Structure formats: C-alpha cells, structure tokens
Write the structure tokens for this entry.
Amino acid sequence: MTEEPYRWLEAIGNRREYVREQLKGGSPAFAVKMKDGILTLGVGSGQSKVFELFDRHALAALGHPADIEKIRQAAIDAAHMEAFTRAPEDVSLRRLISFGLSPQLKTNFEQIFSAPFLIEMLLVELGATPETDIVVRLHFDGAFQISTTPVAVAAAEPEREKAAQDWLNEKLAGSPDRKSVVERCLEAWWRLIEGKEFSEEPPADWKNSLKDKVVEIGWLDRNIARQARYTPLTAAEAGL
Amino acid sequence: MSQPIAGDFLSLLATRQVPALKVDANAAPAQTQATTVFAFHFKDGVLMAGDRRATAGNVIVTDRIDKVIEIDATSILAIAGVPATAFEMARVMQTSFEYYRRSQLQQLSLPAKVRALARLLRENLPLTMQGVGVVMPLFAGLDQSKTPAEPKIYFYDPLGAQFQAVGYAASGSGSGTIRSVISFQERYGNPPPSKLDLKQAVQFTSRVLMTASEFDAATGGVNPETKTFATIKILDAKGVRTLGEQEQIKYLQS
C-alpha cells in the first residue's frame, strides 16, 4: 500500500478522515484563563475528561478514554521526571508539548499500520499572572496551537469549535466570576452537542440535557500557597 | 582492634602485609546537623514544629532552616539528623506521593506513606552505620479511612522501624527536654496539650522550644525581637496548613 508516494498520502488522508469520524459526537472541553486562575471544564460520565497533570498543569480532553489515559500518563511521567531531576519550576508546558507529546502523536499518526490516537485536547499551565498563563490546543496528529485568547475550546469539528470559541470570548470579555464562566461554557457545550447555532437563544429547559451527565471542573488557583494548585470543583463549589 | 580470624579477609590482608583500614572519626568532615522537632495532638488536630538551627560540631551554620516539610496536602515530615539525607528523603516522598495521586487518581493510603519513609530509612542503612547520614524523622499523616479523617503521628528509629505516637513525639538533640515538658504537661497541665486550642498550642510550642534551647546549644529558640520563630504546621481533617510568622506573632502577643 505504501510502495508509491501517492498511496501513502491517500492512507494518511483516510486516517485523518477516520479519526475525525470517530471523534464526532465527542463531548467538548473548555479552558478559560481568569484573574485568579485557570478553569477547565468537561461534561462526561465520571473522571474522564479533566485531569491534574502537575503542580500548575492540567488537561481537558475529548476522545477515546484509553487514548486520553495514555497521553495523560505520558504527560504525568514526563512532568514528574523533569521535576525530580531538575525542579518543579522547570516543568513547562512548552517543553512538555514541543519535545514530548507532539512528536509522539505525530509519529503515531504517520505510522499507518498502527491504531491512531483518538483525541483532541487542551493543556494549560498556570502562570504568576494571567498574562503568563498558557493554554495549548493539541490535536490527534501532534499539531498544536498556543491560544492567544482567554477562552479555548476543544471540539470534534474545527468549524464548530471556532464558532464556540469566538462566542465564548465575546460573552466572557471583562472579568467574569467563576459561576458565569461555568454557565457560559455549559451553554456552549449544549449548543455544540445539539448542533445549534450560536446566534440562537437556547430553550428554557436546555439544562435538562445535563441531568444524566457529570460536569467535571478543574480549577488551577493562582492565589493558593500550596505547590499543587489544582482543585477539582463540584458544580456546587463552582456556584451552580 | 580484634585480631583477624584465620582464613578471613583481614587475615589475607595481614599475610600480604597490607594494613587494614582504620576508621578515624576525627578525619570525617564535620556534618551539618538539624535538631529538635516535635509533634503533639491538640484540640483541632496535630501540631508539628521545629526550631530553625543547623549546627556542625560547635558551629551554628544557620538559624533559618525549615525542618518541618509539607510532603503533600495531607502529610508532614519533620527531620532530625543529617539534612543532606533528610531533605533528599523528603523530596523523594513529595515526588512519589504526588505522582501516585495524580497518576492513579487516588491518594496513597496512610500505612503506605508510613512504610515509604521506613523503606527510605532502611535504604540509608549504610550511611547510618557509618555515622555520616543518620536521620530520625517524625511523620504526621491523615488517616482518611476514618470519618472524619484523623491525623496521626509516627516516629522512627534510624533503621526504619515505625511507631505510632499516642499523644506526642519528639526527635533531635533537644528532644529529651521536649518530651519531659510535654509529658509533664499532659499529666499535670491544665489544660493538657491534647486539650489546647490553636492559640494556646502555638504559645505552648514556642515556650517549649525556648526551654529546650536553654539546655541544648544545637536547638535554636524563639525570639520575636530577632524575628526568629519556629516552623509550625497544623494537620487537621482538612489537611496541612502552615502558620507563618505573622500568625505566630499574633498568637504570641495575645
């Protein structure tokens, strides 16, 4: 199949299509840079979308749970190894992604006889100030972008993801409180899942679709004195 | 030195006229020692404290060392002995406990944490036997199998045997004085240390350290005028909390 160059290109194209198809219907994940920290949010069915990676680092993802788990473990291993051999302050998201996760994902994606990773994810690093916070959008093929806006979204379809991100950045401009941020993210989640336009107003009972779901919220606190800044929040703790 | 037994390694050296090694304690480099840490149960949980002096022989190396270390959100280590080894043990514990919690998505149990420290002490046996790396730590952790979670205190011998302390534990060169005072107070004090509130417990801690420093040159005291305070950490059902200088001043002045 790969003896001719165009066959390889075709195989890669098919693979990309296959991954996108598999990710369709995946529950989107959100990351919001705020004055007092970074909030990550996902809606799933348990501890499967939002995770602590290291002292100032967290991950929110959609995709196959086994693939998310592999990436999560790899990131945790790399971060702790770096922290132990050097110092916790030396663990940086740029290095973790540029030299660790991204090359691994790219290599895996291009090995067309192995199963591809079915994931889309957001990785965040808490800085000393909101300006130094870093949010990275990492794709299944190893491509990544460093977010330049306060809100970043990971969704299965790129166009819908962009629409959600623009809408949230507009709605969450200024310094919103945590409750408003969570509510707006959930509203964006509902629109993405239901395939609704962002110009439409949601019906009064849109929250019913959350009834059989678990809202996972991770909070990286800028003001806490402890080394480990990550706290999982319940919906009630987030003000809902 | 005892005579070599026929056939053993030392007798082999003797037949080849190779002088056997002699340990000269005076030739060893002066070790930095960290001293006097203690923990006791009070009304709200466990208070663990330490003075801030490190000495090498009769030299005071520093009066600003922190010997009470937060290992994770629910456990504290207090070090007495050679800090080079003790700080490394703390670093290994911090990394491994947090690694376990993050990767397994659950806390390491208290018995496992207690044994992890015992294993580090056992692995340090060669340095302990040579007399250049002795560490006798105290450990406090939260037993989350109980509701509400219960803070517990453990002390160790240099070979790694672990013991749970009922009311209090102390380690380091000033520990004799500390143990005597806490034991006396527990029996005759009113209220005893186990019934003190936080303010009283902080005042008691500072006074105990001041007393220990009067009898032990390797124990630094508490002196608000030179801004020398104890390192104090509290472990209660919610986890670990550090009492900074300002909070200690507030309690000492009230």
Remarks:
- The two ends of chain A are 54 Å apart (CA to CA).
- Chain A touches chain B through 15 residues (CB under 8 Å).
- Strands of chain A lie at 29-33, 37-44, 50-54, 57-63, 119-125, 134-138, 144-146, 151-154, 214-221, 230-233.
